Amino acid sequence: MKRALIVTSIILGLASCKSPRKEADALDKKFHEYWKNRTSLDITKAHELDESYKSFFAKYPNDTILPGLLYQDAQLNVTCLQDNKEAVKLLDKILTDFPKHRRTPEILFFEGFIYENNLKDTTSAINKYGRIIQEYPAHPLSKQAEFCIKSIRNPNMQLAN
User: Fold this and answer.
1) Counting CB atoms within 10 angstroms of each CB, which of 58, 93, 110, 144 has the fewest?
2) Domain of residue 75, residue span
3) pTM for this one?
4) How many domains does the chain divide into?
């Protein structure tokens, strides 16, 4: 009897635990619902979502689902919370912890954009754009990165018709 009670307790305990995948899916759903249902900037909900991300990151620091969630949290920090430094920190975590991630060029471009347009740090922007050109020359963002560097270096440059 005692053994059956212990086994049942273990099974119930395991069944009640959420897997990282389920928690990540729930976060992804919250993220998309936030964007779909917002008619105005809801800072409180954005902070709540950001805290949910941070909790997930602390709970599952090495999970392979992390890059997508870090990217979403970076988007939230840039667009809603206006915390560009935090967004860069989140994107840097992807680049550091998942250096071979398939979306590395997009992450570098997003960082370059944040540095150039939001933080007004053109040196860091050029470095991020330059990495795309150097490491991913065949990627479609490579041409855009080249243009961004040219426009930073020559702000009065006219667009060709």
Assistant:
1) 58
2) 18-153
3) 0.80
4) 1
